[in-house]
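Worked problem 6 (solution included).
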Amino acid sequence: MQLIQPTVEQSLWLLRVVKSILGPIDSGAVHNLIDASQRHWLQTAYHWEELEPLPSTAWATELSDLLISEPLMAQQLIQSLVILAIVGDRRDWQTYHCIRQLAHRLKVKNAGLRYLRLWCLKADGLLVFDVYWHGFIAQKYRYEWRRRGWRWLLGGAATYMGWMQNRALTQQYQQLQGLPTHTLGHAFWQFYQQQHYAFPGEAQGLHEGLAFHDVTHILGDFDTTSAGELQAVALTAGYQQGGDALASLIFIILQQHLGIQIGLLSQAKQGGLARSDVADRFVRAFVAGAAMTVDLSQAWNFWDAVEQPVAALRQRYNLTLNHPRNTG
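Solution. The predicted structure is:
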């Protein structure tokens, strides 16, 4: 995802309009995300309590003039508001209509307002389906289905359900143990051993098409706690060069912050972003993903990279995080 770096002046205006729409914030998670966004994206350090809200009368004048040449930045403002409203469990129509009005004045379309609308309608089931369908998992399946066909897609699903096994595929993954310890292939094998995961091709093994998600954990040095999953998907949303990165972010926010179960791959938990350190790592991972030079969820080939050192791949893909190991 291309992430626009605002100027200091633009950042101040963006924060002021966020405050004017959200009003008083009683959600610690929202405060955490705003603070982390200032550190890692906006490169500012304004005190939220001291910021003056931007009146709606200025949206069509000063704000429009400021963003008229930056349509992508305007879109990212609307997307940020959608995320903050959902994270803060804001289901009120006043917030929705304010964001919609701002999007109209900034001439922003397709910024994910339908996700917030479903949230306000309390149509959680429809929202879950929508973000899953447009997020990174379904996007990957559609991409590979077009390349490999239904047999590949259904074969992986059948092994995951335990209905069959693909021993030849499993053997390919097991042989990664023999690679040097610093390589991606060995790290992948070790990751599966540590997590007690079945390899693709084994009964109840993850579909081969999602191996890139575990590679994301490895390259980012993320564990599989709630904090680790938030970071891994944030990094994925950042490096996505196609599809709907906003859907991927909302997907993991619903599951690992709001406690809404999506799919079978990980257990839903509440309050992940209420921890300031987790919110900080979440935003930092997203910004780092946006700076990467490769989309692991699309044309990238796992087997072409298995013999490469993990450190070299991080450098090649321009992945820089430098964070302490997750603690939960």
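Discussion: Residues 136-316 form one domain.
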